[in-house]
Amino acid sequence: MSNSHLFLKSGFIRTPSQNGVGRYVCQLQRVVLKFCKNNGSSRGMRDFIESGLVDFAKNNPGIVVYLKPRRHRTAVISAEYLNGDKQYINCRNFAKEEIIKWLNLLKTQSGNTTGFRYRKLLHTDHPSIQGPWTPYTFKDPAENLAKFPDQDLSRPKHLPKTATEELLELFQRSSLGSPEGKRAE
């Protein structure tokens, strides 16, 4: 095991408490677009500012957008989130479409950076070589090729019949097999 994890922040997985239960709260708080007015590597950023910035601001009223012109520097997107984390994206020679894609990605992220060592409540000296358990670990591979909706796969085989199904079967047996059921027809 390497010691590279010693320099990473550590903690438990934190999510915004019940984000999306009442309403969704975008975690991106502020975006600063830094660019040079003359440098050729900032051309895509300037094109985005001229043609796409107003639409982005109208579609995302909860995100504050700042413009910061700087001389002789490359274009940078600086994003700040509600949890205090910051992300920087170097936009050297990016096209306008690439900047739009990066802004949409930043808008949908929670702000937790990848440089984070996750801590667990449990520890073992012999971790599993098979990987973590998921709900799909012991599923039948035939379900991968099935066309849904499928009657055979819709009801698990280990569950007993429901009371409604039992009553329907009893009614069908009694009406077809008994002489009273035949007289009623």
UniProtKB/TrEMBL annotation:
The keyword Ribosomal protein applies. Keywords: Mitochondrion, Ribonucleoprotein, Ribosomal protein. GO terms for biological process: mitochondrial translation. GO terms for cellular component: mitochondrial large ribosomal subunit. It holds the Pfam family L51_S25_CI-B8. InterPro entries: Ribosomal_mL43 (IPR039927), Ribosomal_mL43/mS25/NADH_DH (IPR007741), Thioredoxin-like_sf (IPR036249). Residues 37-110 form the Ribosomal protein/NADH dehydrogenase domain. Belongs to the mitochondrion-specific ribosomal protein mL43 family. This is Large ribosomal subunit protein mL43. It comes from Tribolium castaneum (Red flour beetle). The lineage of its organism: Eukaryota, Metazoa, Ecdysozoa, Arthropoda, Hexapoda.
